[in-house]
Design goal:
Heterodimer with SRP9; binds RNA as heterodimer. Component of a signal recognition particle (SRP) complex that consists of a 7SL RNA molecule of 300 nucleotides and six protein subunits: SRP72, SRP68, SRP54, SRP19, SRP14 and SRP9. It is found in: Cytoplasm. This is Signal recognition particle 14 kDa protein. Its main location: cytoplasm. The model has no long low-confidence stretch (mean pLDDT 89). With 107 residues, this protein is α+β, with helices and mostly antiparallel strands. The protein has helices at 6-19, 76-90; strands at 2-4, 27-33, 55-62, 65-71. The chain is built from two helices and four strands.
């Protein structure tokens, strides 16, 4: 998994959406991330220090290519605006749902 900066993550994500346009899908996960790189210690050992700010870990996967980025609290609004515009531009290949016809009840 490649950890990228926010801007390069969005550009790579655009490339993944373009590859998945014909067939396939891109899987996205958003997860709360506190910056820990080590597991929590066993009982009786001194605990890890508490994180000063919480972050968001964003992962994207298309077939065998995986990318990820970490978003800090101060960058969430800027990333959200850029991410939503990217989604609006790339989600156009959705299939239309066929609505079932409502049966009229004979009385």
């Amino acid at each position: 998994m490649v950890l990228l900066e926010n801007d390069s993550f969005l550009s790579e994500l655009t490339k993944l959406f373009q590859k998945a346009r014909l067939n396939g899908s891109v899987t996205m996960t958003f997860k709360r991330y506190d910056g820990r790189t080590r597991p929590t210690p066993r009982p009786g050992k001194p605990p890890l220090p508490e994180p000063q700010e919480h972050m968001c870990l964003v992962r994207a996967k298309f077939r065998s290519s995986k990318i990820a980025t970490v978003i800090h609290q101060k960058d969430v609004n800027k990333f959200q605006v850029a991410y939503s515009s990217l989604l609006k531009g790339n989600i156009d290949g959705l299939k239309k749902l066929k609505k079932p016809k409502a049966k009229t009840k004979a009385e």
